[in-house]
Amino acid sequence: MQFLNPSLLWALSLMIIPIIIHLFNFQRPKKVLFTNVEFLKEVQQVSKSRNRLKHILIMLTRMAFIGLLVLAFARPILPSQNADSSSLSASQQISIYLDNSFSLQNEQDNKRLLDLGATYAQTIPELFPKSATFQLLDNSFEGNTNFFYPKTNISDKLSTIDFSGINRNIEEIYKKQLRTFEAKSNQSNGNGGHIFWISDFQKNNLPNLNKLVFDSAYNYYVLPVSPTKTSTLLIDSVWLDNPFVQPNTPQNITIRVRNLGTEAIENKSLQLFIDDNQVSASVVSLAAQSSKEIEMNFSVTKTTGTVSAKISIEDYPVLFDNDYFFTLRIAPKINILNIFERQSEAQTYIKNVFTNADFFIFSATSTQNLDYNVLQNTDLVVLEGISSIDEALQRALRKFLSSGGNVLVFPAPNSKPTDFNSALGISVRGINAEAGVGLALLPPSENEPFFEGVFEQISPSMSMPVATSTWSGLSSGQSILKFRNGQPFLMRQQTAEGNVFVCAAPLGNNWSGFGKHALFVPTMYKIALSSLSQADLLAYNLEEQTAILSLDSLQKNSVFELVSANQSSNNAQAMNGVIPAQRISGNKIIFEIPRSSLKAGVYQLRNKQTGKVETLLAFNYSRKESYLDFHTKEELTTAWAENSNVQVFSLDGEDAKDFATTFKEKNSTIPLWRYFIVAALVAVFVEVVLARVFSRASD
User: Fold this and answer.
1) pLDDT per residue as tens digits for the range 169-183
2) 26, 291, 329, 409: which has the fewest Cβ within 10 Å?
3) Planar angle of CA 302, 305, 310, nearest 5 degrees
4) How far apart are the C-alpha atoms of 698 and 695, rounded to whole Å?
5) Tens digits of per-residue pLDDT, 472-513?
C-alpha cells in the first residue's frame, strides 16, 4: 500500500490525544465513612475491573478513529489491474496530440481551451517514469514529430505552442502517431504504448466515431475540452456585383455574414477596408443560427494593378474568422481579336459590343492580313464567317488554346467542319440548311451558371431570336443556349487550358436574329469574362491545394515567391518570402498553396530574380473551424465503450491536479481512502455502542 499524500501521515501523532484523555480521566478517590465495608469489597473489585475495561476499549476506538481518518486523507492506494508490464511504471513511449486549431480559441470559465489543453498536456509527462519518452503533435506537424524525446523537450514546445490554421481530423493524427510507434525498433518486440488525444472533437473533423479502429497493443486516453458557451459570428464569403472594378466608379460588394451561435447578435460593426483605409461601414443584427447578405458601396482611386481589401466584424472569443481578406483587380483589359473572311453586318454587331466598354481592347482583321504574333497578347479570338482554315492558322489556334486562350466561332454557311475540328478539337458536322428557315431558341435555363447574375427573373414566355442551324454535333460540351427542339445553339467545350465556344448558326441576318437580340450583348460579355484566369479570384482558401495564375511575359526559368503585403515596399524587397512548389506552363504559373507557411492575409506574388511584384493574392483560413459542434464526453464514451483500452476523461471543472489524480487512480492504483472513511465511522459507532453497554451494566 502507498499514499498519494504521505505528508499527512504526521497527523498520526494525534492518536496520543485519547491516551492523554484516558490517563487524566481517572476520578480521584473519595473517602466515604461507612460502619461496615466488609461486604462491599467484592463488589468494589468487580466494578473497578469493568470500568478499566470500558476506558481502555473506548480509548482504542478513539485512537482507531483518528488513525483511520488520517490514513484516509493521506490517500492510500494499491496497484490497479492495469499496472502490468506495460503500465505507467515501465519504460515506454507516449504520444500526445494537442489540438491547436482555431476552434480552441473558445473559452471554458474564462480560460482559452488551448491554454487549458496545454496545461493537461504539461501534466502528462509527470505521470510516467523518467525513462519514458514522448512525442508531441499539433496540427502544424512542424518540427521533428517522427521521434520520441525526453519530457523536458515536451515542456519547451508546449511553452511556445500557438494556434494553427491547418485543419486535421483525428484519423489523420492517429495514423501519424501509429507510424511513429511502428518506426521504433522495439515495437516489433510487442511493447505497447500510450496515445493521448486532447481536443474539442469537432464533429466536422470526426463525423463517424465508429470509423476509428483501435489497436489492442496501445492504451488510448481521450481528453475532451469543451467551451462553456459557443458564440461565432463570421464572414462567410464576399462577391462583387460587377467583376470589373473601374477607378472612381461606385461599386457594390455583397458580404454574407453567419451567426453560428446559440444567441442572437445585436448591432455588430461591419467594416470594409481598402489598402488599410476604411471606406465603408454597416451594422449587423442576426438571430441565432442564421445568415444575412449585406451590400456595401465603395470606389477605388487606383487606376491600374491590384489593391488589397478586407472585411472586418466584431466577435469574441473566436477571432480568426473576424476578417475576410480579398483583392480587387482594377479593370483588367481583355484583348479581343475578331478574325473574318469578308466584311459583313456581323462584324458590326461584334464591334459594337466590345468597343462600348473601356475594359475591352478590340481589334479586327481578315484571314489574309492576320499577323499570327498578335495571338500571343489576345485573350479571346472570335472567328466569324470563315469558310476554311489553312494549316498555318490551324497550328496557331491550337497553340493559342494550349496557352489558355479562348475561341468563339460563328460559322459561315459553307464552313468546312473538318478544318475547325482539327484546329479547335471539336467534333461538329455540317447540315444542308436553307437561309430564312429557322427555329426559335429556348429562354436561358435558370440553372445555367453561365447566365448567373444576368437576369433577375427568366420568363418562359420571353421573346427569343430565331436562327437556322448549319452545324450539328454540338452536344459534346456544355449547352449554353438551345433551340426549342432541344438541339444546342451555343456550346462551350473546355480544353486542357482554354475554352471553345461554338454557335450552330451564322451571325448574318439571313441566318440568325441573335446579333440584334438583347441577349447578344450579355452573352458576348460573359464569353469575354470567361477569359479571365483564376488569378482574378477575390481570395483563396488556405485549405486548397493549388492556385493557377495567368501572367504576361512568363519566362520558363522564373521563380516566384509570396511576400506579405503588410510590409512597406522597402522592407518587402529585403524580406525573404515563401517560395512555393511551382511550375510554368505557357503563360500560366501553377503553384501549391503552402498552407503551413502562410497566415491569412494579402501577399505579393514577386519574381525572386527581378524583384518585380506581379500581382496581389489574398488567402483566408477555412471556415470549417467556425462550426462549433462538438462530440460530448458521453458520445465519445458510448461510441468507444467496447474498447477496454480506451479511457475517456471528464475534464469539466477539473484542473490539472484533479486530472492527474484521477488518471493515477484509474491506471496506477486502486484508491482505498473510501474504505478507511467507512472504518473510521465504524470506530465511532463501536465507541457509542460500548458507552451504552457499559452504562447499562453499571446501572
Assistant:
1) 899 999 999 988 888
2) 26
3) 70
4) 5
5) 888 778 899 999 998 999 999 987 678 999 999 999 988 999
CB atoms within 10 A of CB 345: 12
Cα–Cα distance measured from residue 608 to residue 617, given in angstroms and rounded to the nearest whole number? 16
Specify the residue for cell string 472567328: 383
CA 357 to CA 332: how far, in whole Å? Answer: 12
In DSSP terms, 325 is beta-bridged to 310
Name the pTM for this structure. Answer: 0.65
CA distance 522 to 529: 10
Of the pLDDT bands very low, low, confident and very high (cuts 50, 70, 90), residue 616 is very high
Residue with cell 482554354: 498
CB burial of 226-250 (b: ≥16 within 10 Å; e: otherwise) equals bbeebbbbbbebbeeeeebbbeeee
- CA gap 474, 487 in Å, rounded: 8
Are the beta carbons of 424 and 416 closer than 8 angstroms? no
Check if the beta carbon of residue 311 is closer than 8 Å to that of residue 227.
no
What radius of gyration do the chain's Cα atoms show?
41
User: Do residues 602 and 618 touch, judged by C-beta distance below 8 A?
Assistant: yes
Q: What's the grid cell of residue 547? A: 492556385
The H helix count followed by the E strand count for the chain is: 13, 35
